[in-house]
Specification:
single chain, 423 residues, alpha+beta, OB fold (Dihydrolipoamide Acetyltransferase, E2P), Chloramphenicol Acetyltransferase, 2 domains, six-stranded mixed sheet, four-stranded antiparallel sheet, 10 helices, 26% helix
């Protein structure tokens, strides 16, 4: 089971495109996998004949790195007879040949060494999941110096998270310590009687959302900044814009205007368009705005790339398409990974204000509440205006209070006088 996204821990095998006995070549589509975010086609990376289907269609909860099929001449010959290991071409990319090594490690110490040597000779051949490779690169960890805890010594995500930059493979005690804070008492342990509730199993998306938001809330030093905006001019401008676009069948939403204003504000206050990394602060060249979309079982954040350079009509068309495909789980990974800033809007549900959890590694996220009639003071006079409350949650390692306040000041100017988005 391949890791098809950085957040994927398990997936569902929706459909096989091959059967036992078929011959496949590198690049052939062999299966469809449902990840925590989307349904994707999986291509073969090796050539051979399908000798066994290990995971049937419709199987869910299949962990990343679990074998799902076997090609003749690829994994099978090396696994049963240890003698097959000397074939360098077949044994190098696969770990099954190393499985019998522990039993004969003392009697034949030299036989257990070729695999690590082959791995370290070419970092592309290190036996690690794609997700582990990405995380290792981000943390500056040398995979060739690590020993994995996955099947047949494969390096997996847990190994990378337990390691430190420049460190070797973690000991057995380290993963246990890393997992300790995540222990949760059962409902029975907390006094809730069995049979008094219905249990809905966690799907891949809900597990991923729970893990990522827990990690973000726990590990990122964050703080909120609140501001009230008068949006009567914005609403009036939206009416005029939609009248002009009516012939094209395009309708601009308040959220589209918020995305555009956010992107422009990020370009004018570039310090807010940044991400924290262990090596330094990454200053992004473009405002790639991720918008939170509620989908069955959780949420996803499709991205409007280079939002600062797009017109409102283009943004409106793009956001509508992204939202529809997000709800159908048809987004490609590049369409929901890699944003520089997020916007979460609950105004349509009547929520006045709220604080969102930062979408790591982004430096900030904007929470948008409902526009509603409120009393305001202008000079010494009491008046009524349509007011919208927004909250900017900032990663204090990147966006400090002064930077966040400057960004909100620019954003407020653009929202309250939308003509500023044109200049």
């Amino acid at each position: 089971m391949p890791a098809l996204s950085p957040t994927m821990e398990e997936g569902a095998l929706a459909k096989w495109h091959v059967k036992v006995g078929d011959t496949v070549r590198s690049g052939d589509v062999i299966a469809e996998i449902e990840t925590d975010k989307a349904t994707m086609e999986v291509e073969a990376v090796d050539e051979g004949r399908v000798e066994a289907i290990l995971v049937p269609e419709g199987s869910s909860g299949v962990k990343v790195n679990t074998p799902i099929a076997r090609l003749a001449g690829e994994g099978e010959p090396a696994a049963p007879p240890p003698k097959a290991a000397p074939e360098p071409k077949a044994a190098e990319p696969k770990a099954p040949a190393a499985a019998p090594a522990p039993a004969k490690a003392e009697a034949q110490p030299s036989a257990s060494k070729p695999a690590p040597a082959a791995q370290s000779a070419d970092t592309n051949r290190v036996f690690a999941s794609p997700l582990a490779r990405r995380l290792a690169q981000q943390k500056g960890i040398d995979l060739s110096a690590m020993k994995g805890s996955g099947p047949h010594g494969r390096i997996v995500r847990a190994d990378i998270e337990a390691a430190r930059p420049g460190a070797a493979a973690p000991g057995a005690a380290e993963p246990a310590a890393a997992g300790a804070p995540r222990q949760i008492l059962s409902l029975e342990q907390m006094g809730i009687a069995p049979g008094s509730y219905d249990l809905i199993p966690l799907d891949g998306m809900r597990r991923t959302v729970a893990r990522r938001l827990t990690d973000s809330f726990r590990d990122i030093p964050h703080f909120p900044l609140n501001m009230d905006l008068e949006i009567d001019n914005l609403l009036a401008a939206r009416v005029k814009i939609n009248a002009l676009l009516e012939k094209d069948g395009v309708k601009v939403s308040v959220n589209d205007l918020v995305l555009k204003a956010s992107a422009i504000a990020l370009k004018r206050v570039p310090e807010a368009n940044a991400s924290y990394t262990p090596d330094g602060i990454a200053m992004h060249h473009h405002a790639d705005i991720a918008m939170a979309v509620a989908v069955p079982g959780g949420l996803i954040t499709p991205i409007v790339r280079e939002c600062e350079s797009k017109g409102l009509a283009q943004i409106a068309v793009e956001t509508k398409d992204l939202a529809e495909r997000a709800r159908g789980k048809k987004l490609k990974p590049e369409e929901y990974q890699g944003g520089t800033f997020s916007v979460s809007n609950l105004g349509m549900f009547g929520i006045r204000s709220f604080s969102s959890i930062i979408n790591e590694p982004q430096g900030a996220i904007l929470s948008v509440g409902a526009g509603e009639k409120r009393p305001v003071v202008r000079g010494d006079q009491l008046a009524v205006a349509t007011v919208m409350t927004v909250t900017l949650t900032c990663d204090h390692r990147v966006v400090d209070g002064a930077v966040g306040a400057r960004w909100l000041e620019v954003f407020k100017t653009l929202i309250e006088d939308p003509i500023g988005m044109l200049v």
